[in-house]
Amino acid sequence: MPMQHIHHVAVICSDYPRAKHFYTQVLGLPVIAETYREARDSWKLDLAIGDAQIELFSFPGAPARPSYPEAQGLRHLAFAVDNIDAAIADLHAHGVQTEPVRTDELTGKRFTFFSDPDGLPLELYQR
């Protein structure tokens, strides 16, 4: 089964307007489509990121997912950037806190972590 690339990553948020603002205005991801599903009382927002997508969902009453200490399962979502310092400055300008920049001991690349409005761990990784 030859897989080609990641098509999408799905994220369930607790506050749809707040999460939509974060992903579109703070992270600057362009909207592909936005759909309200009345039967589920749920929004689905498709966002472009390179050749892939982030699907942002709202599901009323969805349980919180533990992140810290690190739980089993998907650890974090990483975004590649050309200039990590500029990307961090953009996040700080929007009031988003970042961890201190570290260097990947295997690749020598710089990276940092931050969180979305629901505490989902996100990473900036300098290419």
Structural class: alpha/beta
Q: Could you give the distance between the termini?
A: 29 Å
What is the CATH H-level superfamily of the largest domain?
Answer: 2,3-Dihydroxybiphenyl 1,2-Dioxygenase, domain 1
CATH class of the largest domain: Alpha Beta
Taken from the alpha-carbon principal axes, the silhouette is: globular
Q: What integer is the average pLDDT? A: 93
The CATH topology name of the largest domain reads 2,3-Dihydroxybiphenyl 1,2-Dioxygenase, domain 1
**What is the H/E string?**
EHEEEEHEEE
Total domains: 2
SSE layout and pairing:
Layout: E1 8-13, H1 16-26, E2 31-37, E3 42-49, E4 52-58, E5 77-81, H2 84-93, E6 102-103, E7 110-115, E8 121-126
Pfam family, one: Glyoxalase
GO biological process, one term: L-methylmalonyl-CoA metabolic process
Domain VOC: 5-127
Short description:
By secondary structure, this protein is an alpha/beta fold. It has two helices and eight strands. It folds into two domains: 1-60, 2,3-Dihydroxybiphenyl 1,2-Dioxygenase, domain 1 (Roll); 75-127, 2,3-Dihydroxybiphenyl 1,2-Dioxygenase, domain 1 (Roll), CATH 3.10.180.
